[in-house]
Amino acid sequence: MTKTPETESRKLLSRLQAVMAEADAGQERLDRITHLIADSMGTEVCSIYLLRDAETLELCATEGLAAEAVHVTRMRLGEGLVGRVARKARPINTPNAPDERGFRYMPETGEERFSSFLGVPIQRLGERLGVLVVQSRDARIFSEDEVYALEVVAMVLAEMTELGAFVGEGAALSARHTSQVMFKGSCAQEGAAMGHVWLHEPRVVVSKPVADDPDAERTRLVEAVDQLRTDIDQMLTRAPTGDAEQREVMESYRMFARSRGWLRRMEEDIALGLSAEAAVEKEQSSARARMETVPDAYLRDRLHDLDDLSNRLLRLLTGQGKDTGAELPADPVLVARNIGPAELLDYGRSLKGVVLEEGSVGSHAAIVARALAIPLVIHAKRISTEALNGDPVLVDGDQGIVHLRPEDTVASAFRDKLAMQAEAQERYASIRDKPAESKCGTVVSLQMNAGLMADLPSLPTSGAEGVGLFRTELQFLTRARVPRRGELANLYARVMDAAGGKRVVFRTLDIGSDKVLPYMKPQDEPNPALGWRAIRVGLDKPGVMRMQLQALIRAANGRPLSVMFPFIAQFDEFTQARDHLMREIDREGKLGHTLPESLEVGAMLETPSLAFAPRQFFEMADFISIGGNDLKQFFFAADRENERVRRRYDTLNVSFLTFLEQVVHRCGDTDTPLSFCGEDAGRPVDAVCFAAMGLRSLSMRPASIGPVKSLLRRVDLQEARAVITEARASGAQSVRGAVMDWLKSQG
User: Fold this and answer.
1) How far is residue 318 CA from its own chain's centroid?
2) In angstroms, rounded to a whole number, what is the distance separating the alpha carbons of residues 503 and 488?
3) Which of 83, 149, 127, 49 is nearest to 284 (CA)?
4) What are phi and psi of 664, to 5 degrees?
């Protein structure tokens, strides 16, 4: 009687389990496994290829191919049929391999005798580890059951690889999570940090991928799924009724948790011999592989939901919660796929750095990281699967590079860099209380940006003359509901108290685009950066803006108050916003509340259109602040979230500097105070150029004030202006090269 594929699979997995239990070395285990698989599936060949580096596969064991090809035959991802399986993370099943597109003949293997080919990826949670191949002389298509069974075996091999079952000589058999790895991501917050990894979502370890009793494993799975469904129902019950986005996520979880197909696929894997945990992880790996190929953002988010749901289920099955008992290191660098602003705030300033697989330069997490002055690297793909708690790690936020488990030479060079930065900070401390006065006698006011109470202690130590921008949206982004007026009034009052009489410019709520409130219904807009955001939201839905203005007036309580409206694109938006503020001043006075001693009402110039507003705008505005981050993206039509284009355009481009010069002249004609606010203001060379173009106030992160002040005090701005003028006259696209050469000549 012919045995069913399920029985054969369970038999094979049981034999694999026996191999795992024996004390063989890694190579011997691989050799025995290829023999077992070929014997069980009735094929002449079984081969295991493992990655020796991110782009290269190596033949590590074979039954049926030439033995001398082991650890000799190598191929790049995408090269040959094996390379295609690894690249696409999908099986290839063909009766005639030599005629298949992309086939590459490896003469040292002797594989020309074999016609049929079945290759499946060895992967764990979307991470490529290798390829499992079976081949036969006869030209035939392997059945769906055979493909499915081989995928189950590949999943077990992935778990065994993760657990170190195949450690041996050579790069392909080296122990996992032990070698140095460099990740090239993107800079979301500058700075450098040296510390040890702290995983936001500790990995779940599946120590027993194979089970002997499918019925018992199915019962465990069903009970865990039932508990998961109950937990989700309870979370839905507790979710605030107004929190539409949170409810949508929970509803998505509930839909997946009640999916018959999801449960059926895991039960089928258990029937083939997997443990309940391994069956969940196999399905999770498939979901992550699908994420790589889905272009639709909404569908990718749903696959992320399924991934998160699988993590919850794995924790129920294994009992491995987020609290693993590991202690937070003294110098933690947070590593995560992604993280919300409230969660990041919970860690606070204890973190030395943050590394994310996802995220964006304008994400909530990036905003909080800037407020906390924590180096942040985003788009560090797969670091959360490679890193372990406690691994040494170097974060270069300036370059967007992360070194995990660095070699001594790399770590030594990085320590030298940190030492040089510390030495520079000591030099900056000596000029902390001195003005930013250039050699030609020009004085530039240096302000700091802030968004949290935690920022304010930096005010006296940074040398800043005040807070040129206090971002009020962070108090909204990190809460599950709209803050109450009294809460905001107390916070703003504490900000003013902490400033110790120094000027604080409060920017009203700047939401929309990349800053969507947790309780705000997302807008379906093709280009949110150009859509319903900032002052546009405030004027269309004035309730929250009025409440915030009332809170600011009450917080001032007789002190000077400076209010700035964001993203003003035309004159009437400013007049309408200003009228709202004046009405609230009048209302608060009638209620008998103490009014501000003085009131400044300003606007952020973030769109080129506002530079061409009527003269009356410049006369009415008490001050104007150039929002450099947004202005640059609109000036160059280059989305600052798009890595392909955002670094293409230089702040010191002659066109942009000429535009800034025009704004300086317009403000000069009406004696309107003008400042430049943004990341570029904190870059010393850029700051010198802005000052040379006539800007007399710059606002930046606290850590940048020392370097900017130091350079300003060493240069003559009239000479800098001459260098810029000459570079512009030469037809240069940017003045950066000429200015850098001049600065070098100054010593």
Assistant:
1) 28
2) 18
3) 127
4) -60, -45
Give burial (CB, 10 Å; 0-12/13-18/19+) of 496.
Answer: buried
How far apart CA 158 and CA 184 sit, in angstroms, is: 25
Neighbours of 485 (CB within 10 A): 15
Residue 484 is encoded by which pair of tokens? 């109450």
For 272-335, the DSSP string reads TTB-HHHHHHHHHHHHHHHHHH---HHHHHHHHHHHHHHHHHHHHHH---S--SPPPPSSEEEE
Locate 364 and state its tokens: 């909530």
Residue 153 near residue 121 (C-beta atoms within 8 A): no
- In sequence order, the 6+-apart residues with CB closer than 8 A to the CB of 181 are 386, 403, 404, 405
- For residue 627, the one-letter residue type is G
Write the single-letter amino acid at 442. Answer: T
| Most confident segment among 50-59, 274-283, 312-321, 567-576 | 567-576
546-582 b/e with 16+ CB inside 10 Å = b?
Answer: bbbbbbbbbbbbebebbbbbbbbbebebbeebbebbe
The sheet carrying 116-124 orders its strands as: 74-76, 56-63, 45-53, 127-136, 116-124, 92-94
pLDDT in tens, 344-366: 877 877 899 999 988 777 666 77
Confidence class for position 417, pLDDT limits 50, 70, 90: confident
DSSP result, 59-100: EEEEESS-GGGTTT-EEETTSHHHHHHHHHTS-EEES-GGGS
Q: Which of 467, 472, 641 is nearest to 560 (CA)?
A: 467
The structure tokens listed for 20 are 């795992």
Query: How confident is the model over 700-709, as pLDDT tens digits?
Result: 988 889 999 9
CB 580 within 8 A of CB 545: yes
Query: Is residue 404's pLDDT more than 70?
Result: yes
The Cα-based distances of 310 to 123, 128, 186, 253, 317 in angstroms read 16, 19, 28, 10, 10
Burial per residue of 363-402, b for 16 or more beta-carbon CB atoms within 10 angstroms, e otherwise: bbbbbbbbbbbbbbbbbbebbbbbbbbebbbbbbbeebbb
Q: What Å distances lie between residue 639 and 633, 647, 700, CA to CA? A: 6, 10, 21
Give me the residue label for tokens 């020009």: 442
Per 3-state DSSP, what percentage of the chain is helix, strand, and coil (rounded to 5)?
50, 20, 35
Q: Is the pLDDT of residue 176 over 60?
A: yes
Q: Is the pLDDT of residue 246 over 80?
A: no
- CA nearest 305: which of 326, 284, 321, 320? 284
Rounded CA separation 563/507 (Å): 6
Tell me, what amino acid is at 7?
T
78: nearest Cα among 99, 111, 96, 51: 51
Integer Cα distance of 150 and 338 in angstroms: 33
Burial of 121 (0-12, 13-18, 19+ CB in 10 A): buried
Q: What is the per-residue pLDDT across 55-66, written as a single tens digit (0 to 9) for each?
A: 999 999 999 999
What pLDDT was estimated at residue 23?
A: 65
Task: Assess contact for 532 and 540: CB atoms under 8 A.
Answer: yes
Give me the residue label for tokens 């790895």: 181
* Half-sphere exposure in the Cβ direction for 550 (13 Å, CA): 18
- Cβ atoms within 10 Å of 233's Cβ, excluding its own: 14
Token pair listed for 330: 């003294």
The conformational region for residue 325 under phi > 0 = left, psi -120 to 50 = alpha, else beta, is left
Q: How far is residue 666's CA from residue 660's CA, in Å, rounded to a whole number?
A: 10
Q: Coil, strand, or helix at residue 136?
A: strand
Indicate the pTM of the whole model. 0.69
